[in-house]
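A reminder from the course coordinator: this example appears on the midterm review sheet, so study it carefully.

Given structure:
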């Protein structure tokens, strides 16, 4: 194995285990570990990509970084997702924008040394990027508030329509109940009168006798 191949294999890129994304933004830090006895020139231009999946090669986004000027030389946008890079705390930090909850996955850093030669391509061990569903989206909140307001207005209108009708209905039910009770009371009185007529004793006929003849009163 040539010294250059050995050196390439000794290079390592490590990443944090997990990163939480808020508002569709995530920062993934990629640390390059060089062996103590390396003789590689200091890199001046890098291309940093974010690969989706543990073994996948799909590039979510990439950005080139000029280390001599400490500025991003270009930003690549894939659909709604774009990224930019900078060097901070001894690591290459990749900032990703436009993530959605469906983008939650394992992502690996791919760092390519474009200049000076030799060309190197290194890949990290992967970071789980957990994209939380944003609750601060103004459009979504506005839609939710509008729907909630419409439901409240509809409920208020329903209450206003039913409230005036409830009092007359209650009064009508009470009047019907009193009328039924009054009818029942009259029927009870009628039954008592009929019974009283049935049990009234029949008077005995009055008969007067005069001689052999009988005369009724």
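Designed residues:
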């Amino acid at each position: 194995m040539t010294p250059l191949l050995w050196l390439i294999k000794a290079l390592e890129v490590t990443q944090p285990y997990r990163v939480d994304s808020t508002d569709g933004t995530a920062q993934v830090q990629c640390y390059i570990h060089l062996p103590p006895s390396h003789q590689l020139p200091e890199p001046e231009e890098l291309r940093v990509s974010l690969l989706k999946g543990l073994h996948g090669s799909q590039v979510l986004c990439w950005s080139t970084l000029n280390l001599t000027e400490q500025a991003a030389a270009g930003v690549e946008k894939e659909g709604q997702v774009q990224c930019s890079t900078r060097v901070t705390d001894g690591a290459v930090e990749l900032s990703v924008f436009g993530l959605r909850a469906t983008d939650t996955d394992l992502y690996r850093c791919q760092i390519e040394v474009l200049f000076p030669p030799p060309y190197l391509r290194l890949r990290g061990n992967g970071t789980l990027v957990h994209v939380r569903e944003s609750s601060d989206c103004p459009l979504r909140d506005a839609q939710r508030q509008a729907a909630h307001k419409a439901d409240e207005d509809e409920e208020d209108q329903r209450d206003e329509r039913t409230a005036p009708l409830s009092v007359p209905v209650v009064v009508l039910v009470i009047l019907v109940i009193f009328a039924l009770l009054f009818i029942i009371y009259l029927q009870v009185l009628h039954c008592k009168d009929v019974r009283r007529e049935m049990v009234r004793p029949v008077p005995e006929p009055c008969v007067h006798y005069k001689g052999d003849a009988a005369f009724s009163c």
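The two ends are 157 Å apart (CA to CA). The chain has a mean pLDDT of 75.
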